[in-house]
């Protein structure tokens, strides 16, 4: 479950559109809102080779995996400037992430770590051949 702010922001397609919406809200509510760009990253597309490698690693350790896009500006954006990057997600209670209520079971954390280890080992094997 995503936060209301995430749902609103994900429906806005660009920074100018966001600023226009903020101005509209500001005017309607007769309040002053300041908008500062403090960080912006271009989205990346994870290379198919990396997606396949991560998928195989996850399938090696878990029966039920789900591929999902991430609109978040994770470190993968920056790491992709250095080389291939991808992300693994583990289930969190009620789908909550990056908030005080975030919780993951130890078993899921362990499965995620095992999948990541396998992905790194698969990647090393591929690079060695």
Automatic annotation (TrEMBL):
Gene3D superfamilies: Zn peptidases. It comes from the Bacteria. Signal peptide: none annotated. InterPro entries: Amidase_Cbmase (IPR010158), Peptidase_M20 (IPR002933). Keywords: Hydrolase. PANTHER family: ALLANTOATE AMIDOHYDROLASE, ALLANTOATE DEIMINASE-RELATED. This is M20/M25/M40 family metallo-hydrolase. It comes from Tigheibacillus halophilus. The lineage of its organism: Bacteria, Bacillati, Bacillota, Bacilli, Bacillales.
């Amino acid at each position: 479950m995503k936060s209301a702010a995430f749902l609103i922001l994900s429906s806005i397609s660009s920074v100018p559109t966001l600023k226009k919406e903020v101005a509209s809200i500001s005017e309607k509510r007769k309040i002053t809102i300041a908008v500062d760009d403090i960080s912006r990253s271009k989205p990346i597309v994870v290379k198919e080779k990396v997606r396949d490698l991560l998928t195989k690693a996850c399938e090696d350790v878990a029966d039920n995996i789900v591929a999902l896009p991430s609109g978040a500006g994770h470190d993968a954006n920056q790491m992709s400037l250095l080389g291939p990057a991808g992300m693994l997600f583990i289930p969190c209670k009620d789908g909550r992430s990056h908030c005080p209520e975030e919780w993951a079971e130890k078993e899921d954390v362990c499965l995620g770590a095992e999948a990541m280890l396998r992905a790194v080992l698969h990647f090393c094997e591929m690079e060695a051949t």
